[in-house]
Design brief:
This protein is α+β, with helices and mostly antiparallel strands. It contains four helices and ten strands.
Amino acid sequence: MPIERSLRPVAAASILTLARRLLDASTLCAIATVAPGDRAHVNTAYFAWSRDLEIVWLSDPIARHSQNLRRNPSVAIAVYDSTQTWGKPDRGIQLFGPAREAMGRLTRASGRIYAARFPEYEGPDSGGYVLYRLRPRRIKVFDERALGSGVFVTARVGAGGRVSWQRTEMYYADA
């Protein structure tokens, strides 16, 4: 499958609008962490997100992915609608960066973000579960209806969730 790069940037406002729509499209995400021996580990969790594109989830601190985060904060998260049909326009978002357990004032802020999406959330003492927070440094969006078939846009994420276009890749099926 040949990959072609476009040199024409995508406007930050467009990337941010797409990212927010994609994060709204599902309440579940797949969280990839680095396990001992540099092995991949993936977990599914309900998540919420802030206007700054920070991802918040609730998890047991003794779960494998939580233990992995204490050793190595590197995380990749994928959000997509799992009811999509192969061969039809697809969409999703991937977020990359460091994550950690929310502590101190971040616990309250993370709790407000999580409760805004899940009103039944009972606060930081939810049965021993704690909140975790990803501050993405990079995102990759694809929305074939908005961007075209096989088009992936990668952007850096700075302070306050400011995004800046990094590259556009177009994947073409072999002829």
